[in-house]
Design a protein that fits this description.
By secondary structure, the chain is α/β, with parallel strands linked by helices. It has 22 helices and 14 strands. The protein is 54% helix and 12% strand.
Length: 428
């Protein structure tokens, strides 16, 4: 029998037509998990069809007329040859020097192998026991990690090893992400958030913070907040917020000298995250109101006329530094007046503040009347207009509907005089 199998394999390997045909048989078997299916004749040239037709004892024209080569018929025809003792499946296994299995079976075996290996990791890394058990259950958001492990388990285990060290040696005082990465792995870029290991690190942190079905943060703002909760900071110099006429106190309740001097001299400060880490309290130099804008030109124009305004400029989207200042202001029970441009991004920022500080934030020159006063002229592209569909806060509903009808953006620069009137009323 063994000699017949060898002989059959040698025979079919001697013709290019059979090599091409057997490769199609293999695909069909891997797809179906059995001998069956049909191979289209259009995949073969005339010479190849002549060879295959001769195997069936028919003409090339008749084979072409059939349109396909039924694999089951090939198996039956094989029994009519001198290789009658050889079954097609064992011939294919010998031909390709491996036991052919279906894709479904292969996937099942891979999953079983992965589960076995993962069990070993669960025992090896107790600090990640719960998280690895969660990965083992394979909920939808971890499937990318499972695929990564199945593709290269050695690399996956190496990353798990680094994650275990990271969880076991989380900082006890504020530490920059590159410095943390250097301390844990020797490479300051290992935990970069765009790398596989960085994404896994965010997943681990999110899991241990929520300990349930999780949603890993996607936005820069959310990622920074997550890392901050573990005393890790991505950037503490370029991450800054502009402030004027605000006072700050440190941990020992002493007034911060630099903030005090800035108020006394009407100096505007760009406060980096680095300098906010030691601040425990922030409040207005006068009154209990703070104005917040996203546009530096508007902020500066307001200060030109009213240099004593307690004001913050975020320079577009909120950075962690801005949230740290706003968090402390709300702890001090300050009222925050927020105004932005009339575009989908501006309304989105307003909604985030309203949701984060529902008691303390009030919209400032951000209603339908103010929108019309801004004389909106710049068309908003359709893809950006769709962002308005995600704005759900009741305070913004009417404005959203109006903007969807007008389809144009308005800007704060046109409202500076109106904004100054509001400020003077509050400062009286």
């Amino acid at each position: 029998m063994e000699s017949k199998l060898e002989e059959a394999t040698s025979f079919f390997k001697s013709e290019k037509a059979y090599d091409k045909l057997f490769k199609q048989f293999r695909k069909k078997y891997e797809s179906l998990g059995r001998i069956g299916g049909t191979v289209p004749v259009r995949l073969f040239d005339d010479d190849e069809l002549e060879t295959i037709a001769s195997f069936f004892g028919i003409s090339k024209e008749r084979l072409q007329k059939k349109g396909g080569i039924q694999i089951a018929h090939f198996a039956e025809q094989l029994k009519e040859t001198k290789f009658s003792e050889v079954h097609l499946k064992e011939l294919l296994d010998h031909y390709f020097a491996e036991v052919l299995i279906s894709k479904k079976q292969r996937k099942k075996e891979q999953q079983q192998k992965f589960q076995t290996r993962l069990n070993l990791l669960i025992g090896k890394y107790p600090s990640l026991h719960n998280w690895l058990s969660y990965i083992k259950a394979c909920p939808p958001e971890v499937r990318w990690m499972v695929r990564l492990a199945e593709a290269d388990f050695f690399r996956f285990e190496n990353m798990v090893n680094k994650l275990a060290k990271a969880i076991e040696r989380l900082p006890e005082s504020p530490e920059r992400l590159p410095m943390f990465s250097q301390r844990i792995t020797g490479d300051p870029h290992d935990f970069d958030i765009n790398a596989d290991l960085g994404k896994m690190f965010l997943h681990v942190l999110t899991y241990y913070k929520q300990n349930q079905a999780i949603t890993v943060p996607q936005t820069t703002e959310e990622i920074n907040e997550l890392l901050k909760s573990f005393l890790i900071y991505r950037d503490d110099l370029l991450n800054f917020v502009t402030c004027a006429n605000l006072l700050a106190e440190t941990a020992n309740d002493s007034l911060h000298a630099v903030w005090k001097a800035a108020v006394e001299t009407n100096t505007v400060q760009n406060i980096p995250l680095r300098e906010l880490l030691s601040i425990k309290r922030i409040y207005p130099a006068t009154g209990n109101h703070v104005w917040v804008v996203e546009n530096s030109g508007v902020c500066s124009s307001l200060l030109d006329v009213q240099p004593n305004i307690p004001i913050i400029c975020t320079h577009g989207q909120f950075k962690l530094a801005a949230f740290m200042v706003l968090d402390l202001l709300t702890i001090d029970n300050c009222t925050i007046y927020y105004g932005s441009d009339f575009d989908p991004e501006g309304l989105g920022m307003a909604e985030r503040l309203l949701k984060r500080y529902p008691i303390h934030v009030q919209l400032w020159q951000m209603d339908t009347a103010a929108y019309k006063k801004s004389n909106p002229v710049k068309p908003i592209p359709t893809e950006r207009l769709k962002q308005l569909e995600r704005i759900e806060h009741p305070s913004l509903n009417q404005l959203v509907q109006t903007m969807k009808q007008v389809k144009k953006a308005g800007y704060q620069e046109a409202l500076v005089k109106e904004m100054l009137k509001d400020i003077r009323l509050k400062l009286k």
